[in-house]
Amino acid sequence: MAIWLNGAVLDNAQARISVFDHGLTVGDGVFETVKVTGGAPFALTRHLERLGASAAALGLPAPDLSLIARGSAELLAASGSPDRARLRITVTSGDSPLGSERGGGPLTIVMALGGLKDWAASCDVVTVPWPRNERGAVAGIKTTSYAENVRALAYAAERGGSEAIFANTQGNLCEGTGSNVFLVVGGELVTPPLSSGCLAGVTRGLLLEWFGGIERDVAAAALAAASEAFLTSTTRDVQPIRAVDGVVLPAAPGPVTGKAAQVFAARAATSPDP
Ligand SMILES: Cc1ncc(COP(=O)(O)O)c(C=O)c1O
Questions:
Q1: Atom of ligand 1 nearest to the CA of 198
Q2: pTM, whole model, 2 decimals?
Q3: Which of 47, 87, 125, 137 could form a disulfide with 32 if both were Cys (CB 3.0 to 4.6 A apart)?
Q4: Domains plus CATH for the chain?
Q5: What one-character DSSP code corresponds to residue 220?
Q6: What pLDDT is attached to residue 85?
Q7: Does ligand 1 lie within 6 Å of residue 34's CB atom?
C-alpha cells in the first residue's frame, strides 16, 4: 500500500514518522477525510480549505495546500485510482519536545488511503453524558485530538448505537463523533449552527446549499422528539436516524430525509468538486 509522506510516495513499510511527532505525543494536528469515488476525490477544494482553516485556528504554520492537492493525485495514481476509498490527510506540528510545547520544525504531512465501508440504511444513535465545549480552544476544529470522540463512540456502541450524539454546554444539540445532525421539528428542517460547537461539515454545508435547512439551536432533547432526523458526513452522505436512545422515530427515512438524500446524490454525481 502506498503512502504519501512529506512530498514522496512511499511503500507503507518505508513510511516512517518520528516517535517525537507532536501528533503522536499530544494529538497536535489537523486532518481531513475525503471520499474517493471512481478514482477521484470528492469536494477536495472544500476539504483543503477546511484543512487550512483548521491549521490556522490551531495556530499551526499554513500547510502548502497545492502540494497536498498534487500529492493526493500522485497517491491515487500510485494506488491504481481506486473506485471507492477514503483519503486521509493528516498534518501535525512535527517533531517536538515531549510536552505540550511545539518543536518549531517542519510540519509532518501524510496521506493514506483506506477502505470506504457501506453504511447501514439507517442508524441508531446514543446521546452521551459528556458535553461538547462550544467555547473551547478546539471547538469546530478538525483536530487529531479525537479521544473524546473515540470514547463517546465506544459508549454508544456499548448501548447498541452506531453513532454518539453530543449536546453542548448549554444543553443544545451539537453533532455526532464524525457527523452533523439534521432534524425535522415543526415541519422545518433544522441543523445546529456552527456556534453550537459543531464542525463545519463539508456535507452539511453542501446540503444546506443544495437542499436547504435552517441553522438554529435546538435542545438536545428535540432529537428524540423529531418527526425524522438524519446524519451527514463525507463517508455517509445522508444517513437516516432510526432511533435515539432507544426511542424509535416515526420514519427512517422520513419524506424530508429521503428527498435530501436524493438531491445530495444527484448534485454530487454531477459536481465532483463543488
Ligand atoms: C466531529 C465531526 N463532525 C462532523 C463531521 C462531518 O463532516 P464532513 O461532512 O466534512 O465529513 C465530521 C467528519 O468526520 C466530524 O469529525
A1: 3
A2: 0.98
A3: 47
A4: 2-114 (3.30.470.10), 123-270 (3.20.10.10)
A5: G
A6: 98
A7: no
Q: Which residues touch 266 (CB under 8 Å, ≥6 apart)?
A: none
Q: How far is the CA of 58 from the centre of ligand 1 (A)?
A: 17
Nearest-angstrom CA–CA distance, 259 and 170: 31
How does residue 1 score in pLDDT terms, banded at 50, 70 and 90? confident
Strands (E), 197-272: 214-215, 228-233, 237-244, 247-248
Closest listed residue to residue 50, CA positions, set 21, 72, 30? 30
Phi-psi region at 12: left, alpha or beta (left = phi > 0; alpha = psi -120 to 50): alpha
User: What count of other Cβ atoms lies within 10 Å of the Cβ of residue 162?
Assistant: 19
% the chain with pLDDT above 90:
99
- Return the residue whose CA atom lies nearest to atom 12 of ligand 1: 178
- Protein residue with least CA distance to atom 15, ligand 1: 178
Q: Which residues contact 151 (CB under 8 A, 6 or more apart)?
A: 130
pLDDT score of 42 more than 90: yes
